[in-house]
């Protein structure tokens, strides 16, 4: 199954893992210590993050260290930006409409 960054951030546990790794690499046990779920469950979440390209795993001796690849969030940022422009235009138009309606109501109230 091909996974993407949107699937990764859809899950709150995976978002927390990314938050933990954003500043420095951690080994699997250090990550698991931050959660009340089992280490195998954390490993499954990390596997998904790895498949999405958000986490890379390197080996140092017997330890496996996870590092966040935050550049992948560029895909999310680009997608959000597209809708940000769309919604800003819509909200600006709504604001203009409401201002005109308020002015019309104000003028109508003053005449009566």
Automatic annotation (TrEMBL):
<dbReference type="Pfam" id="PF01022">
    <property type="entry name" value="HTH_5"/>
</dbReference>
<dbReference type="InterPro" id="IPR036388">
    <property type="entry name" value="WH-like_DNA-bd_sf"/>
</dbReference>
<dbReference type="InterPro" id="IPR001845">
    <property type="entry name" value="HTH_ArsR_DNA-bd_dom"/>
</dbReference>
<protein>
    <submittedName>
        <fullName>DNA-binding transcriptional ArsR family regulator</fullName>
    </submittedName>
</protein>
<dbReference type="InterPro" id="IPR011991">
    <property type="entry name" value="ArsR-like_HTH"/>
</dbReference>
<dbReference type="InterPro" id="IPR036390">
    <property type="entry name" value="WH_DNA-bd_sf"/>
</dbReference>
<keyword id="KW-0238">DNA-binding</keyword>
<dbReference type="GO" id="GO:0003700">
    <property type="term" value="F:DNA-binding transcription factor activity"/>
</dbReference>
<dbReference type="GO" id="GO:0003677">
    <property type="term" value="F:DNA binding"/>
</dbReference>
């Amino acid at each position: 199954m091909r996974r993407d960054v949107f699937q990764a951030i859809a899950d709150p546990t995976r978002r927390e893992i990314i938050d933990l790794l954003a500043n420095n690499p951690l080994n699997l046990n250090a990550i698991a210590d931050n959660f009340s779920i089992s280490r195998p469950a954390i490993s499954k979440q990390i596997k998904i993050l790895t498949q999405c390209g958000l986490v890379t795993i390197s080996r140092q001796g017997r330890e496996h260290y996870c590092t966040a690849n935050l550049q992948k969030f560029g895909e999310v940022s680009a997608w959000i930006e597209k809708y940000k422009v769309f919604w800003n235009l819509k909200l600006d138009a709504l604001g203009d409409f409401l201002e005109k309606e308020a002015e019309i109501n104000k003028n109508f109230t003053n005449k009566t």
